[in-house]
Amino acid sequence: MSPSFIETLFNGLPRLRRAAAVFIALAFAAVVPAVAQDMDGERKPSYAMQSALAPESLLLDATYADGRLVAVGEYGHVVYSDDRGVTWTQAASVPTQATLTGVTFVNAKLGFAVGHDATIIRTRDGGENWDLVYHDAESEMAFMAVYFENEERGFALGAFAFMVETQDGGEPDSWEERSLSDGLLDDYHLNKLFADKDGDLYIAAEFGIVYHSSDKGRTFDRIQTQYEGSFWGGFGMSDGSVMVFGMRGNAFRSWDKGQSWTKVDTGTDKSIAGGVQLGGGKIVLVGLQGYVGYSDDNGKSFVEVTRADRLGYAAVSDGPDGQIVVFGEPGAKLMPDDPEKAREAVGARITAATEGGS
Asked: Rounded distance, CA 181 to CA 221, Å?
């Protein structure tokens, strides 16, 4: 039997607090050295190995680069699809074997991915080839998210509020360590960064903390929600509201830039790691133990589809017509964007949530 997420986490990243264990275990399921030594003892990158099974291995984040869907995960795997998740191609050259946890694109060609060992890689050809632009294995830090305002300015952040910023397009010598804001000395794990409809930034963090920035991440304000557990993710919605979610099925929504939060009935006690609002307005959440939650009423209530595989899922995106793509332990998997059809397609059980539950 292979080691569990949590066992792998504790063996590979002993410094991480157990308060965020379940999600970070999902995100940190494999820890592989990102550099090797040549015959002269000089450190050089270890490249991700080519494998036909890369699209079926652990994938932790995904984003669209124009019409191309790009996903990242363990062993430095980067895969991309030009048909919205039906077929996948592995990137030709990725100079790391570290687990990659976050990915973003500035435009159709320029993108960045981050992960373990304080690793940042960059592509200039839409995800087919990548360069190593930042790496610090000795720090034992892990980046969880990356953001770029434009082609020049961006930052990466993650464990213990570790954060670096570039003003020069991510060039290798341009990254400088910074804090969230002057005088803000928090060391919480920063698990996910996302934007609302207006471009304000939010960070889902530990202990019920959400950080908010109205100036493109130059400064952040700390917001303490009524929840005391860890938030693992979040996203902005078309009506201007934002949702954050995390342990034991807890999710909260804000319509006023994070100043107040309303509990969302997700219909589950399974931990939630990813979510998205699809183009048609439907909201989909994914998480541990095969959880996929669908909402057709703007997030007021969810119908739970428990996938028969009972595996962990970390991200979800729009797929081809009538389908979504879920990303996690078994890689990228297509399933219907309708819960009744999903139940039939993946052999799952459906339970309906009622509005106003605790």
From this structure: 8
For residue 75, the model assigns a pLDDT of: 97
Q: What is the pTM of this model?
A: 0.88
**Distance between CA 57 and CA 138 in Å, rounded?**
26
Residue 3: CB atoms within 10 A of its CB come to: 13
Residues facing residue 134 across a β-bridge:
120
pLDDT at 3 exceeding the cut of 90: no
The amino acid sitting at 346 is V
276, 275, 330, 339: which is closest to 88 by C-alpha? 330
Average pLDDT, the chain: 88
**279: Cβ contacts below 8 Å, ≥ 6 apart:** 318
Q: Which element (helix H / strand E) includes 184?
A: none
Separate counts of helices (H) and strands (E) for the chain: 3, 30
Query: What's the distance, Cα to Cα, between the start and end of the chain in Å?
Result: 36
CB 46 within 8 A of CB 96: yes
pLDDT class of 139 with cuts at 50, 70, 90: confident
pLDDT value of residue 220: 97
Give the largest CA-CA distance in the chain. 64
Examine the pLDDT at 255 and tell me if it is beyond 80: yes
Provide the pLDDT for residue 300: 87
Residue 207 exposure: Cα atoms within 13 Å on the Cβ side: 10
| Chain position carrying tokens 């990303």 | 327
Cβ count near 324 (within 10 Å): 25
Distance (Å, whole) CA 294 – CA 317? 13
CA–CA separation, 168 vs 174, rounded Å? 6
| Residue with the two structure tokens 């970070």 | 24
Task: Using the structure block, give the residue that is written with the tokens 């592995």.
Answer: 90
Whether the CB-CB separation of 280 and 237 falls below 8 Å is answered with: no
* Cβ–Cβ < 8 Å for 126, 68: yes
Expressed in percent and rounded to 5, the helix, strand and coil fractions of the chain are 10, 40, 45
Phi, psi (deg, nearest 5) at residue 310? 55, 30
